[in-house]
């Protein structure tokens, strides 16, 4: 489909110049995700220091035809890349037509060349077919489905074995709280940091979680499962166009035996319905991993995700996969770190993952 104006142009501009056009375009586009929003993109930039470089494609009349929010991720360990969007599972090119998408892709490559950045990474959206671009498939899958009308119907939507675990969790003495205040934030970060340390990966800076919560306002919150008042599992979720997205979640070692995660996600479904949500997006997982199998156990069908990458001539792709063989020794050592040490060192490393 051709652009409505032949003399289209692409402009990369500072966020203050693009604010209104950016917001209006995201609000009107049916495929927009929270990771295209200024709320997400500016929160990531503020919390991590990674430069935000939004690209808007406009037609000759000045109307926005496409958006590509890029973060310039810089890391001595993992290398440099322009990423759309930073720390997101989505946020690739958002365009009205193929011509606008082509302009965005070309402009992203131009910005990379001008900055001396060896790669551009797009998470979702159309895959460019220009020189240097390639699709990346078979690594991740997404999991989403509609919410049922109530608790009974929601239970029936869960396969029998997992349903039994949820029923046991519902009958336990665990309690659930939701909120956005300091106590919820502190407990969530402690649990999340412990969970990722146990998996052998560095934790993101707490400033990132706080910035996202502050930017999204009532469209983000934390749900925490407690035993005797003590937090044992917690998840930070985003709410976007009737969909709840549990985004950063985890549990302490004891959470598994307590079935705290089972209660957490079922309680989140209930909480989301009360907020008017009709869909549950369980997020992405790497194919063949434990989280991939866990989400299938809940009755979610995996949907393959296709990402795209541009590489400058002679450059190799960044490897930020913690399951990569090259990081096997580091992962094993990280699992043994005291939590205080992991929390002190981890954020500086995790900033480079983007």
Automatic annotation (TrEMBL):
Q: Name the SUPFAM superfamilies for this protein.
A: Acyl-CoA N-acyltransferases (Nat)
Q: Where is the BioF2-like acetyltransferase domain?
A: 163-296
Q: Which Gene3D superfamilies match?
A: 3.40.630.30
NCBIfam families from the UniProt entry:
pepcterm_femAB (TIGR03019)
Cite the PANTHER family for this sequence: LIPID II:GLYCINE GLYCYLTRANSFERASE (PTHR36174)
Protein name per the record: FemAB family PEP-CTERM system-associated protein
Q: Which organism is it from?
A: Sphingopyxis jiangsuensis
